[in-house]
Design brief:
This protein has 18 helices and 12 strands. With 474 residues, the chain is an alpha+beta fold. Helix content is 51%, strand content 12%.
Amino acid sequence: MLPVGLIVCALAVICIAQLVYKWINPKCNGILPPGSMGLPLIGETLQLMIPSSSLDLPPFIKRRMQRYGPIFRTSIGGRPVVVSADPDFNHFIFLQEGKLVKAWYLDTYAKLFKQGENVDGAYIHKYIRNITLSHFGAETLKEKLLPYISYSLSIDHVQQKYLHFNYVTTSLFMGTVMACDFGAKQLFSYDPERQEKLSDKYINLSQGLMSLPLNIPGTSYYRCLKDQKKLISIMNDVLNTRRSMPPENRPNDVLDHILQDMTAEKFINDDFIVNLLFGLLYVSFDSLSSTLALAMNLLAENPLALEALTAEHEGVVGKREGQHSSITWEEYKSMTFTHQVINETLRLQNGSPGLLRKARKDIHVNGYTIPRGWAIMTLTSALPLNPDTFENPLTFNPWRWKDIEPKSIYKNFAPFGGGMKQCAGSEYTRLFLSTFFHVLVTKYRMTKISGGDVVRGPMLRFRNGIHVNISKKT
């Protein structure tokens, strides 16, 4: 008779073998896309996070596309995911929001931004989109934000604070502080001179989000959680301070708008307001700051592009009746080369690897089946780097956009997402960058000193920042 211990060990081995087999061979009512599920529990998360020193796709994505094609399966954070770099299928998924698919977030994001906790997510998303458009949409930009941003950047002490002229500065840090301060000003009338500094905490938050979720002192994720708690506390203080103000003295910002909606919208409570302010500020700061830093690096390395950008903006100034006037909406819309620079920067930046959705039903594509409950990553980062669509895709060439018809590449270039989930602040980002460039090239000279080494992991970062010398024109 076999010893009991040996029997227990044998049963344990059999159970583990069955679990591993099920992990490697998931159930499916059809044929799964090709790919690998990686190790049990963690999947291929570690491979995804391996960085490269190039603007090209992360090695994890590129190697699997070469091996399996534009649609493959993997596991990220222990969750089964189908990754798609097929432009037609991605466009189809964008159109199926709320039908075949729904929004989905990695556990790290869901925990920090309280995603997936709302019963009627579609209605709440619509509310958030509408309130964002009302404060960052085209009409508000035209009537309110454009004059404010233009005027603010024209004030000498503001320029000195963000541009540090006659001084070597790090453009990534500069862009982060500026984007964070301006975004917080619109959301809850933030005053950086009187209130606690926010940008450093959001930098730690951004770095921790794409790190291994190890809540151990000294790790990026630990600092991320610590700063998230501090930021939530700050937002609570902002809310309490605003409530103590007489209604007639409250500024007309996003926070005031939400407070006015509390009686009509029953889902709005203090936790919702605090987390919304926290999340909106993160979204507005993260993409804007990294795009601005990359643009400055690309322009500093491409004198012809910087020269053409400068000529365009000096031409705008030369046509004005008053040389010190702010940018008008018509001037902003006429900045053809500026928009080409922004498009090219967004194409190369690719803020996140892709957009995540979750299949509500089995989905059939190209002979494969994506099972209900699986996540789908529409790989928006791969499409703008496709050499079949963009010649020499890793080359910074703003002039390429002169001959590109938007309709011909709309499935291959979606820097702000697509469908119902398209970013409501896309025009704000473009306007902010255009206004910043206008001040920079008409009033200053920029010379790159050091840095600018790209690190492409899941997100684009710079190994040692980007150090530039900015001096006032005489």
